[in-house]
Write a structure and sequence with these properties.
By secondary structure, the chain is an alpha/beta fold. The chain has a single domain, classed as Metallo-beta-lactamase, Chain A, CATH 3.60.15.10. 34% of the residues lie in helices and 24% in strands. It contains eight helices and twelve strands. A seven-stranded mixed sheet has the order 1-2-3-4-5-6-7, with helices on both faces. A five-stranded mixed sheet has the order 8-9-10-11-12. Helix 6 packs antiparallel against helix 8.
């Protein structure tokens, strides 16, 4: 069977990241909620001491409202949001964090390198409304952990997509059964050969850590990579006897991450 070995990314894909006309969400584990617009998504992790938001979609009040509404919709308490953890300093991930800071007084987490990168390298240079608009309270570096209540997020420095990009591993449960989730932070490889080499080195490093931590759940922050929207639609309607599509096993996680290599090699050839 002839299947695609990487997502098709076009100018339309990039444009779609700003489409705030609709959102979709699903509770995909006991303690993990995913909220997406067309191309970009974020996660909310529930702990015994409140909620952690991971990435923040786009600097738009509509994105913020969609995240809050999704939290309320599944019966979680938005007033307990305590932390905003970012993968990297691009606008489609730093997103609507400003409102989390203003309305919930969250602590914010990013690498210092990407905080500077976010300030100095605008994703949309001609659009001041997308520039850096809130402070990072906690700088994260490779090997750090972020703990709230019963949950600890392991952070890994995976530069390449951005100079200070981070990837995360954290535990989730389904009906009380424990799983380990892996989130590769910077989806697409950079365009320079030097950048790609760094990106692939980071990927090897992350896969080594994923192996150590026995990661068996694949998450993505861009829906184009993992049939993200279809997985959310499926998860919303999934019946109790149907499998959780995010659980792909340790071998499955390695296979899934092959897409980042494929995109890198193809980028070098083009
Ligand atoms: Zn990015």
């Amino acid at each position: 069977m002839n299947r695609l070995n990487k997502p098709i990314v076009t100018k339309e894909t990039i444009k779609n990241m700003e489409d705030m006309s609709w959102f979709i969400h699903a509770q995909i584990f006991d303690d993990l909620l995913i909220i997406a617009q067309k191309e970009t998504n974020c996660f909310v992790l529930k702990t015994t001491d409140g909620l952690i938001v991971i990435d923040a979609i786009w600097p738009s009040k509509q994105a913020f409202d969609a995240i809050i509404n999704a939290i309320k919709d599944i019966g979680w308490n938005a007033d307990t949001i305590k932390k905003l953890v970012l993968t990297h300093g691009h606008t489609d991930h730093t997103g609507c964090g400003k409102w989390f800071v203003e309305e919930y007084g969250v602590n914010t987490y990013l690498s210092e390198t990407d905080d500077i990168f976010w300030l100095e390298h605008h994703t949309k240079p001609d659009r001041p409304e997308t520039w850096k608009d809130y402070d990072i309270t906690n700088y994260i570096k490779d090997g750090d952990t972020i703990t709230l209540g019963d949950k600890t997020i392991y952070a890994y420095g995976t530069p390449g997509h951005t100079p200070g990009g981070l990837s995360y591993i954290f535990p989730v449960t389904e009906n009380g059964k424990a799983y380990m989730a892996g989130l590769w932070g910077g989806t697409t490889p950079p365009r320079t050969k030097h950048g790609v080499i760094q990106y692939l080195k980071s990927l090897d490093y992350f896969l080594e850590k994923a192996d150590e931590k026995q990661v068996n759940v694949a998450l993505s922050n861009h829906t184009a990579v993992d049939n993200g929207l279809e997985r959310i639609v499926y998860s919303k309607a999934r019946m109790s006897y149907m499998p959780n599509m995010y659980v792909i096993g340790q071998d499955g996680f390695g296979k899934y991450c092959q897409v980042f290599r494929t995109m890198s090699y193809d980028g070098l050839e083009e």
